[in-house]
Amino acid sequence: MKYMMFVCSDTEPDTDTADYPDIEVWVAERDAAGQRLQGMALAPTSAATTVRVRNGELLVSDGPFTETKEIIVGFDLLECADLDEAIEVARAHPMARGGRLEIRPVADFEQ
């Protein structure tokens, strides 16, 4: 089953002083296991453009639409047997300590 994992910043990171896991090791291990299909970091929110259409009018603004301290900084597309496996993959991600990871199943509209 495919899961989209949004990698987000957090205003309350882990206070544990132990070293963070190495992201390159995490990526290599997930790729080798076939659990990570794709992933990328995103440019900063200052490079974001928000597009909306209201009453037929195009509204374009710089930056993210919402005012929030937690931002999406990247994503990983995962292939896991089930949610439990996806949670274990997320648990090992370095941003599980410094940020937060949101996991969502990819919708399958052909079922």
From TrEMBL:
**Highest lineage ranks of the organism?**
Bacteria, Bacillati, Actinomycetota, Actinomycetes, Streptosporangiales
Which PANTHER family has this protein been placed in? BLL7171 PROTEIN (PTHR35174:SF3), BLL7171 PROTEIN-RELATED (PTHR35174)
Q: What is this protein called?
A: Uncharacterized conserved protein
Spell out the Gene3D superfamilies in the cross-references: Dimeric alpha+beta barrel
Q: Which family does the similarity line name?
A: Belongs to the YciI family.
- Name of a matching Pfam family: YCII
The chain positions of domain YCII-related read: 14-109
